[in-house]
């Protein structure tokens, strides 16, 4: 795996609504852990690599970034609290209203419809952004397998993610949607899903593009290596 200090800087998007690998990753991150308002866009990231990538795609001259530590309650167990780094990237003067109309993203509390057809040619970057924004990765000691799930307050978003995975190549089967103990929703990849193949697919080309979160990619890689008892190379 490439060292986190050697991550290439993605090129800024001339138009955030144009379909490119960078914008697909950006909007996946926004949908999974961000929000739109009529004033701009806010998106959060758990590590500096992803925050830098998001800022670069949006155009550094119109971005404000903030780094803090946040207490996060586990979606599966409300009694568990984790303290995590959080980078908040705000994009001013960005086409939030256009994104709400074109992609069906919620804006200022209005519900969203999540229409990602325009980004279909960049499905893996879109899914990568969603995985890093609202996905979880763990190694299951009891079964020696990798657990991958998606968690969000908006049921419609998760059903959209299920559709993206089912239409992916290779296809990624998922389990049914369930409610979390904290009031949101979640689903996991099915037991017969090939998590190693999914990991290779979802991070394909990320080292060259710089469109990824270093900590999340590393955790997924290590989990797959433990589950398969082999080196899987760069994800």
Concise account of the structure shown:
With 235 residues, the chain is of the alpha+beta class. The chain is built from eight helices and eight strands; from the N terminus they run αββαββααββαββααα.
Task: Walk me through what this model shows.
The strands form two sheets. The chain has a four-stranded antiparallel β-sheet. It has one domain: Homing endonucleases (Endonuclease I-creI, Roll), CATH 3.10.28.10. Helix 1 packs across helix 2 and helix 1 runs parallel beside helix 4. 39% of the residues are buried. A hairpin with a 5-residue loop joins strand 7 and strand 8. By secondary structure, it is of the alpha+beta class. It has eight helices and eight strands. The termini are close together.
How would you classify the quaternary structure?
single chain
Q: In terms of structural class, how would the helical and strand content be classed?
A: alpha+beta
Regarding CATH, which class?
A: Alpha Beta
Question: Taking all residues together, what is the mean pLDDT?
Answer: 88
Q: Give the biggest sheet.
A: 4 strands, antiparallel
In the CATH hierarchy, the architecture is Roll
């Amino acid at each position: 795996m490439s060292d986190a200090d050697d991550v290439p800087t993605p090129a800024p998007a001339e138009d955030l609504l144009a379909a490119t690998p960078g914008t697909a990753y950006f909007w996946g991150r926004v949908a999974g852990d961000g929000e739109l308002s009529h004033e701009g866009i806010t998106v959060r990231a758990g590590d500096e690599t992803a925050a830098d990538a998001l800022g670069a795609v949006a155009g550094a001259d119109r971005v404000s970034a903030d780094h803090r530590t946040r207490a996060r309650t586990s979606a599966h167990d409300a009694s568990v609290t984790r303290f995590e780094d959080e980078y908040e990237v705000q994009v001013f003067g960005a086409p939030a209203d256009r994104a709400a109309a074109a992609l069906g993203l919620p804006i200022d509390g209005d519900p969203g419809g999540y229409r990602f057809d325009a980004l279909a040619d960049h499905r893996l970057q879109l899914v990568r952004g969603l995985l890093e924004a609202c996905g979880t990765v763990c190694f299951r000691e009891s079964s020696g397998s990798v657990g991958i799930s998606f968690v969000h307050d908006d049921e419609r978003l998760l059903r959209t993610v299920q559709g993206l995975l089912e239409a992916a190549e290779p296809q990624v089967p998922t389990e049914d949607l369930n409610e979390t103990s904290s009031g949101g929703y979640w689903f996991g990849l099915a037991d017969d899903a090939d998590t190693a193949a999914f990991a290779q697919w979802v991070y394909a080309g990320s080292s060259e593009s710089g469109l990824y979160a270093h900590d999340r990619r590393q955790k997924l890689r290590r989990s797959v290596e433990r589950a398969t008892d082999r080196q899987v190379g760069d994800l």
